[in-house]
Amino acid sequence: MAKKETKAEKRARVNRVLEALDREYGTEYICYLNHETPWQLLIAVILSAQCTDARVNMVTADLFQKYDSPGKFAIADLKELEQDIHSLGFYHMKAKNIISCCTDLMKKYGGEVPKTMEELTSLAGVGRKTANVILGNIYFEPSIVVDTHVKRISKKLGFAKSDDPEKIEYELMEILPRDHWILWNIQIITLGRSICVARNPRCRDCFLKELCPSAVTGEKEERKNRT
């Protein structure tokens, strides 16, 4: 049985993981959803539920020309908006939430995207994940976005134990320095899309393999899949 990692050892490993991620991917803030304004990012994130960023970007290229303000979305015809976003899946709920969200933006916030977690999560279709995307990417408030990549890889690294995204957020807040809260999501998404892919992680090629408790199991699975 492997020796349990002490708090000091874990803290040291966290720092080494962050240093490796910074070397490999840099420290530039990147948002994979195309947008020019805060309200565009808010709508893009709502649309991205159960959908790839690339697909959302294809749809919003025309969508944001047709509806060029939150006010236009607020008065949109539900059925027409559903057709506009049909290819993204869950289009009925997304269209309904976007109209409701933008109605509140206009009535309560003068068309501006609010700046607090409480105000953001009061909007239709906006949970903690969406709110943290806005806080981090628009207002540069330290925040941790727990998407599927962050959830899966944080658990592989032994940095989180829960299956609940909000609990994982708080677990990561305890061990990651605030200056890496936003970067964690950006860097882990890149890792999850390129090396630590969900169905077939390439542990043997991963620059974090010496720091990841799951790497040994992953390499065994790779060898098994090759035979």
UniProtKB/TrEMBL annotation:
GO molecular function: 4 iron, 4 sulfur cluster binding; class I DNA-(apurinic or apyrimidinic site) endonuclease activity; DNA binding; DNA N-glycosylase activity; metal ion binding
EC nos: 4.2.99.18
Pfam families (UniProt xref): HHH, HhH-GPD
GO BP terms, alphabetized: base-excision repair, AP site formation
HhH-GPD domain ranges (all copies): 47-194
Keywords: 4Fe-4S, DNA damage, DNA repair, DNA-binding, Endonuclease, Glycosidase, Hydrolase, Iron, Iron-sulfur, Lyase, Metal-binding, Nuclease
Enzyme type, top EC level: lyase
Binding site for [4Fe-4S] cluster: 196, 203, 206, 212
Catalytic activity line of the entry: 2'-deoxyribonucleotide-(2'-deoxyribose 5'-phosphate)-2'-deoxyribonucleotide-DNA = a 3'-end 2'-deoxyribonucleotide-(2,3-dehydro-2,3-deoxyribose 5'-phosphate)-DNA + a 5'-end 5'-phospho-2'-deoxyribonucleoside-DNA + H(+)
Cofactor note: Binds 1 [4Fe-4S] cluster.
Requisite cofactors: [4Fe-4S] cluster
Domain of life: Bacteria
InterPro entries, alphabetized: DNA_glycosylase, Endonuclease3_FeS-loop_motif, Endouclease-III_FeS-bd_BS, HhH-GPD_domain, HhH_base_excis_C, HhH_motif, Nth
SMART domains documented for this protein: ENDO3c, FES
Family to which this protein belongs: Belongs to the Nth/MutY family.
UniProt xrefs under PANTHER family: A/G-SPECIFIC ADENINE GLYCOSYLASE/ENDONUCLEASE III, ENDONUCLEASE III
Task of the protein: DNA repair enzyme that has both DNA N-glycosylase activity and AP-lyase activity. The DNA N-glycosylase activity releases various damaged pyrimidines from DNA by cleaving the N-glycosidic bond, leaving an AP (apurinic/apyrimidinic) site. The AP-lyase activity cleaves the phosphodiester bond 3' to the AP site by a beta-elimination, leaving a 3'-terminal unsaturated sugar and a product with a terminal 5'-phosphate.
Name of the featured protein: Endonuclease III
Lineage, uppermost ranks: Bacteria, Bacillati, Bacillota, Clostridia, Lachnospirales
